[in-house]
Amino acid sequence: xxxxxxxxxxxxxxxxxxxxxxxxxxxxxxxxxxxxxxxxxxxxxxxxxxxxxxxxxxxxxxxxxxxxxxxxxxxxxxxxxxxxxxxxxxxxxxxxxxxxxxxxxxxxxxxxxxxxxxxxxxxxxxxxxxxxxxxxxxxxxxxxxxxxxxxxxxxxxxxxxxxxxxxxxxxxxxxxxxxxxxxxxxxxxxxxxxxxxxxxxxxxxxxxxxxxxxxxxxxxxxxxxxxxxxxxxxxxxxx
Length: 239
Known about the structure:
- This protein folds into three domains: 1-65; 82-135; 138-237, Roll (PH-domain like).
- The model has no long low-confidence stretch (mean pLDDT 89).
- The protein is built from six helices and six strands.
- It has a three-stranded antiparallel sheet.
- The radius of gyration is 22 Å and the shape is elongated.
- It has 239 residues and is α+β, with helices and mostly antiparallel strands.
């Protein structure tokens, strides 16, 4: 499962926070609006990096200290990513991009373009959330197996075919990692067998597992989700 954040996570977070403080001091020290506008782009990048680093540090500590409780994972009820979290990210992007456009009249083309990209991204993401196009994904603990759906192939993995499950990280995000018995013989939707095996090969090459599913915004602790999956697979196999 997870261990507490190590030296690399701590050091990168401290560096990002220090750079954000230095960038803020430099921006406030500028006497002209033109000079302040030029330093504002660096400030926004540093604050985004610092905020992301601090958020990841807190999340890793929470995950490492989480007590697994399978009662927090309902059986037969689809678990979906939090729309409120996606909306918060969209509003944050919109606010960060709009701030320099509203408060500063002299911005370099690069900073102005970056700000407009954030505004456009925030508006687009917010519209997708309101239209229920985002976020995508679903995890369901069913009688016939573990049902996973997302941007990729929707599939049901029979409990007796799941040989092991662990929690971990991929790409800086929490995820469940699954090891399967003879994945090439697992039933998949018609015409999707090659796509499923490509996904298995991808996971084996990069993650040393047969399958994975990200869990960053599902609102259920990773330890509890892993414990619930392990409970049902052991129950199905008589363990």
